[in-house]
Amino acid sequence: MILVIGSYGTGITMRVPRIPESGETISGAQLSIGYGGKSSNQAVAARRQGASRVELITAIGDDAFGREARQLWNDEGIGFQFVKTVPEVSTMVGGIFVEPSGENRIVIAPGALEHLTVKDLESFSELFDQASVVVVCLEIPTDVVAHAIAMADERGARVVLNPAPAAPLDESVFSKADFFIPNESEFEFYSKSGYERPPGQTLIVTQGSGGVRVIDDAGEQRFAPLPQEKVVDTTGAGDTFVGTFCAAIDEGLNVSTAVKRAIVASSLSVTKNEVIPAIPEREAVDAELKNAEEGIWK
């Protein structure tokens, strides 16, 4: 079972002709409102890639956005009985600005996520007992992140830490992660903060069009990207990568195969608008992976 701990939020996306300068107002944007939150996105990706059971721990508000979240998880077959509902507090909202190139800028109002506590995790301990893979992001308080990783480590689950958005973490938190998956900018942040890969940990740095670096005790591997003719929206690509990787690891696939599957899935995701509609199904990844292994990865 994959246990995903972290965030759900509603994504309010504006597709803009360009990012305005300070003090400037521009017109011509297109508005869409959809599901978001890194952990929820990762859970959806894992389920669509064949994970037989995915459970989610997060916090939502007692509002329309929260009710829509429960409907999404029900439709996707994600367990949500341990999701915390916080009265009189809004569900997390992310404001996403997408340029014509597909590049995005995101601002987050955490809302209910700030009310997820260490005590909550302790009350959900039965899930940790059943989990084989535990994945955590940083859209929740860092003390909750640290405690979640410690609980997973104590039970022998494989821990996947996706340090997004980047925030200061103690070395003891890093050392318990079996897989550390930052993007380029996050890796730079942690490198400047003194991060060094501990023995036994697999570091996976996603670099967008630069591909993926995998560093473990055996050395370093580089995986070429899978470019698409047209990039529409990169918003959920990182979450799709992490969720797909977790599904592959949970299935028992080796790291190289899991990374390749994750590259394919994230590459496919940037060809469509919005996050949830863009996360591919397993069949699409299988077909594209075969083509890639006969082409760029042969």
Automatic annotation (TrEMBL):
Pathway: Carbohydrate metabolism; D-ribose degradation; D-ribose 5-phosphate from beta-D-ribopyranose: step 2/2. One of its GO terms (biological process) is D-ribose catabolic process. Its EC number is 2.7.1.15. GO terms for cellular component: cytosol. Activated by a monovalent cation that binds near, but not in, the active site. The most likely occupant of the site in vivo is potassium. Ion binding induces a conformational change that may alter substrate affinity. GO terms for molecular function: ATP binding; metal ion binding; ribokinase activity. It comes from the Bacteria. It is found in: Cytoplasm. Its cofactor is Mg(2+). Substrate binds at residues 37-41, 139, 239. Residues 11-281 form the Carbohydrate kinase PfkB domain. Catalyzes the phosphorylation of ribose at O-5 in a reaction requiring ATP and magnesium. The resulting D-ribose-5-phosphate can then be used either for sythesis of nucleotides, histidine, and tryptophan, or as a component of the pentose phosphate pathway. HAMAP family: Ribokinase. Belongs to the carbohydrate kinase PfkB family. Ribokinase subfamily. This is Ribokinase. It comes from Flaviflexus salsibiostraticola. The lineage of its organism: Bacteria, Bacillati, Actinomycetota, Actinomycetes, Actinomycetales. The gene is rbsK.
